[in-house]
Specification:
With about 140 residues, the protein is mostly helical. Helix content is about 75%, strand content about 0%. The chain has a single domain, classed as Four Helix Bundle (Hemerythrin (Met), subunit A) (Up-down Bundle), CATH 1.20.120. The radius of gyration is 15 Å and the shape is elongated.
Length: about 140
């Protein structure tokens, strides 16, 4: 499955302005971003931890890739994850039930996916690979 399809689904869900659809759209937008990140790291031949801690480690690797555009996108990835947690677990948080807010979250996810996809193109790919490899060696002992 192409993880970008989760983003397409989020874009469709937000059109029907119901709390369940808006919350689900946030979740799908985040998982699109997360799984695109996983896909790219695997394409670079990095092993990705599938446990709960893997989410933060995926983000941290991109935050340490040495490419400003991708570092900024990785920071947004953290915000998307935070919003996903609110949408999925904090049903009393009504901010995530606002259509304009959710549309902005989905737009952020689109921007992150675009930035992460740039990791697949040279010379960014080689530079990001080297920086991530160094980060993993120094901090994750992987």
């Amino acid at each position: 499955m192409n993880p970008r399809d989760f983003h397409k689904l989020a874009s469709e869900l937000v059109k029907e302005n119901t709390p369940a659809n808006l919350r689900t759209a946030i979740s799908r937008a985040y998982y699109a971003v997360y799984n695109v990140g996983v896909e790219i790291l695997k394409e670079m031949d990095f092993k990705v931890d599938s446990g709960p801690g893997g989410h933060g480690r995926v983000r941290m690797q991109f935050e340490n890739c040495g490419i400003e555009k991708i570092i900024a996108a990785a920071s947004k990835m953290g915000n998307l994850q935070s919003n996903r947690i609110k949408a999925d677990y904090n049903l009393e948080k009504k901010r995530v039930e606002n259509q304009k807010t959710v549309e902005a979250i989905i737009k952020d996810a689109e921007d992150v996916i675009s930035a992460l996809d740039s990791c697949c193109k040279e010379p960014i790919r080689t530079n990001a690979f080297k920086a991530i490899q160094t980060y993993r060696r120094e901090t994750l002992q992987l």
